[in-house]
Specification:
five-stranded antiparallel sheet; globular; alpha+beta
Length: 120
Amino acid sequence: MKALTANRLTDGEVVFWKSGQWVTRFADAELWADDDPAAAEAEGQGKTQPTTVVDAYLIDLVESEGLWAPLSYRERIRALGPTNHLHHGKQAEGGAVIEALQHAHGAARSTGRVNLIKRK
């Protein structure tokens, strides 16, 4: 499955595509099968809104216990918001937003390196 995501220009908020518009909750995102041509069409529509978002792109999803979540660890963090603290960002909303991401955490795939910075 796939979902379309981008960052909103006005505030940098991560947004997801649903029925021709951008929504802020991953749980509300429209999902497509990997081979569904409608996903590419939606990506094209999203990219034609350059005054609204920055660089719309499709992400891969994984299912766990009937819930969908971004496959890559990076995208999972983006979907949760700017912090992992339970009282800030999208985590504070709780419900399906968090549940969908927590159920598939074991299947997340890291797509990059982590650079550690030594403090003096």
